[in-house]
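Sorry to interrupt, but I need a hand with the structure work. Could you add the entry underneath, on a fresh line?
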Amino acid sequence: MAELDAVIRGLNLTLAWGLKAVELMTDSATVHRWVFDGISGKARLKTKAAGEMLIRRRIDTILSLVQEYDLHLKVTLVKSAENRADALARPTRLPETS
């Protein structure tokens, strides 16, 4: 759910900066599917998560922002191995000393 909140914050920043096109890059296959399917109108949200209603509201908010402000949103799934943010978050191993 925090990732969906981050998408909404990013879209609000897009609007504040006067941009019309933005690329959403996520390493979450679930978030990618939810947003991509919502934008394309391809499928309804499917989740077994306990907070389904909260997730649905966030997806609806994202879709409303995209439609209301005529935003061009490109949704890209980033492999974890190629995700710079993940690399920064991983602790580096210090060389072992004897």
Q: What stands out?
A: Residues 2-82 form one domain. The CA atoms of residues 38 and 63 lie 7 Å apart. The longest helix spans residues 52-68. The radius of gyration is 16 Å.
